[in-house]
Amino acid sequence: MFETAQDVARGLREAGYAADPVLVQTIWLSTKMQKPILIEGPPGTGKTYLAQAFAAAAKTDLIRLQCFEGITERQAIGSFDEALQRLFLETQVEALDREWEKLRNQLHTLDFFTHGPLLQAVLQPRPVVLLIDELDKVDQKFEALLLEILSDWQITIPKLGTVKAKSIPVVVMTSNQERRLGDPLRRRSLYKRIEHPDVVKEAEILDIRTAEAPLELKAQAVGLAQALRGYNLVKPPSIDEIVQLVRALQLMGRTEIVPADRDVLLPFLAKTEEDVKRLLLRDGFTSLVATALEYRDQALAAMKGGREVLAEAV
Fold first, then answer.
1. Is 262 left (phi over 0), alpha (psi -120 to 50) or beta?
2. Domain ranges, residue 255
3. Of these four, 105, 162, 185, 276, which has the most CB atoms within 10 Å of its CB?
4. What SS3 class is residue 155?
5. What is the DSSP letter of 263?
6. Residues 31, 35, 41, 46: is their CA dihedral positive or negative?
7. CA 41 to CA 177: how far, in whole Å?
8. CA-CA distance, 199 to 202, in Å (whole number)?
9. What string of DSSP letters covers 20-86?
């Protein structure tokens, strides 16, 4: 996928992701050593977006397994399509071999199997990025299911047998740490933790993902994000929500964030009833806008510095 770590850094940036040097090296090594990456961190820190940018940078497809409580092997791997099997029997009845064992083997092939995300990923003719998202929502039994895939790059399916990978996907697993993942899965993975970005990092992210927005507006949005995350909200804003906020301000023709726009901006910033009430307090949003200005100059300097470095590299 990538010849050098520099190719990774360049590809991620073109895909809109600002990665630190350690993460760049981790991704490059994962592709060379065929090891999955486990990304942990709070919600809204860009873990899922990293996998999407990874696939875009590698110019390959992204196959996503969205985990949830109670997910089954059937939903992750797939299952036999009984309706298709019946249709086959009904339409081919005259030509079929009547020996039961041969008939059963004929019905239990991949031709009659609906492919779930895990099976899709290993059967691709060329490597893809397999995103196993929010893995902390599943139980240990489901974790164990993944071990065979991540260790031997194969899937054993009852009645079908062992399906070996045609190509080895690059696996990115994410966790919000609602539950601690097991040690066997951790041992097989390269581990990276991602936190909410500081002023400098968020300035770099916004500058990449909202290239057409005025620098001063983006710098103030970075400041507002930092202020909101220190405001003890139930759900602090994610990186993507701040990106969407900047895009909304552009559509509104704004060049700065002002308290008068509070009610219009609330749907981007507050996602729970408790948070809405806090920001509707008499001085709540006004004080946050004032605090944002304290970060603005630092964010602006980071953006200008990043652009100068990029210009020199080009």
1. alpha
2. 199-313
3. 185
4. strand
5. H
6. positive
7. 7
8. 5
9. -HHHHHHHHHHHHHT--EEEE--TTSSHHHHHHHHHHHHT--EEEEE--TT--HHHHHEEE-HHHHH
Domain boundary residue among 147, 170, 193? Answer: 193
Q: pTM above the 0.85 mark?
A: yes
Domain count along the chain: 2
204 and 178 together in one domain: no
Place of tokens 């964030």: 257
Strand runs (DSSP E) across 116-270, as ranges? 129-133, 154-157, 161-164, 170-175, 190-193
In eight-state DSSP terms, residue 245 is H
* Same domain, yes or no: 31 and 172: yes
**Are 28 and 57 within one domain?**
yes
| Residue range 193-250, pLDDT digits in tens | 999 999 999 999 999 999 899 999 999 999 999 999 998 899 999 999 999 999 999 9
Alpha-carbon gap, residue 140 to 160, rounded angstroms: 24
* Burial class of residue 230 (count of CB atoms within 10 Å of its CB; 0-12, 13-18, 19+): exposed
